[in-house]
Design a protein that fits this description.
246 residues
Length: 246
Amino acid sequence: MRTSEPNRERFHTTQWTRVLQARGQSEDAQTALSELCEAYYAPVHAFIRRTVNDGEKSRDLTQEFFARLLKRHSLGNADPNRGRFRNYLLTSVKNFLNDQHDAQSAAKRNPGSSLQSIHPDTNSTTHPGLQIPDPQSPAPDLDFDRKWALALLDRALTALAEEMKSEGKQQTFETLKPWLTGDTQNHPQSQAAADLASTEANVKVAIHRLRRRFRNLVKEQIAATLPEPNPAQIADELSYLVSILR
């Protein structure tokens, strides 16, 4: 199993770096942007869902947002010095929803065009009206970041599963996976050792190695969303994402 720590050279050309370098003009940049958008669809949809308060409308608006983003072929507002794709995507979706709201307001003043409402239909019998926000629920921005963190961890976990499978260690991964996801309440290490025909000492070592590899894969996922990332930037982003999941 590979355990080498990521380094500056390895992370120099990331997906987000490729997008920024070409500002979306090249096929390579568009491919990188498409991959990033696909990877982090869930946080955007969650953010729009909080605004729209309607499942079908939120899905339609999310699809429209990504379609426009990928079709634009330009990222003139993306500042490589400010960097994170997470920040760029959140700002973009806020601007998109503001534009939708402005267009809807303009249509009300000048009827004739049909637009998708970004607010619940208060006259509908099937869709809820405007509701008072739950003070216990997370702010939309924080909810976006939490969904982002979960999506990132899921991608790292999937990458690790594929890696272990390619090495013929799928059973080891499935047996030890609870020690990555925190679901170990009903999974004693003694049982894992029995399932793998191994010893508890060997299982402890295997879990340590698996966690280390998982952490490195998480760092790789983080690096893909940063422009020319370095270990300090990656550590800072990792620390933040871990903090919001506690």
